[in-house]
């Protein structure tokens, strides 16, 4: 297998912390990157979810509505047993 070198620019703290965690696993950063690239080939892309962790507009509106309802004294709450009973109706 022929090998090649490539350079990557990254934050020095990220490099140091990554070297530490992979060192605990008994591998160096080069090996970790090779594992990542091989898994990427097997997965046909990133070997993990890559997404924005912010809720979308609809979810955000639902969260705001739930918060508003939880603070409204006129809204009757249900305990778990009553909520399950209502769902079964």
**How big a fraction of the residues is strand?**
under 5%
Order of helices and strands: HHHH
Discrete helix count: 4
Task: Give helix % range.
Answer: 55-70%
- The radius of gyration over CA amounts to 24 Å
Distance between the termini: 65 Å
Which structural class do you get from the secondary structure elements? mainly alpha
Number of strands: 0
What does the average pLDDT come to? 91
Largest sheet: none
Outline: elongated
Low-confidence runs (pLDDT<50, min 5 residues)? none
Kindly summarize this structure in a few lines:
It is elongated, with a radius of gyration of 24 Å. The model has no long low-confidence stretch (mean pLDDT 91). It is mainly alpha-helical.
Please render the helix and strand layout as text.
Blueprint: H1 12-24, H2 29-43, H3 57-71, H4 80-88
Would you write up a description of this structure?
The structure is a single chain. The mean pLDDT is 91. It contains four helices and no strands. By secondary structure, it is mainly alpha-helical. It is elongated and about 70 Å long. The termini are far apart.
Which short descriptors sum up this protein?
single chain, 89 residues, 4 helices
């Amino acid at each position: 297998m022929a090998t090649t070198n490539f350079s990557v620019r990254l934050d020095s703290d990220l490099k140091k912390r990554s070297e530490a965690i992979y060192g605990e696993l008994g591998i160096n950063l080069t090996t970790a990157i090779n594992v990542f690239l091989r898994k990427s080939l097997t997965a046909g892309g990133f070997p993990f979810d890559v997404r924005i962790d912010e809720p979308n507009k609809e979810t955000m509106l639902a969260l705001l509505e739930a918060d508003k309802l939880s603070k409204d004294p006129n809204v009757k709450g249900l305990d778990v047993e009553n909520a399950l009973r209502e769902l079964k109706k």
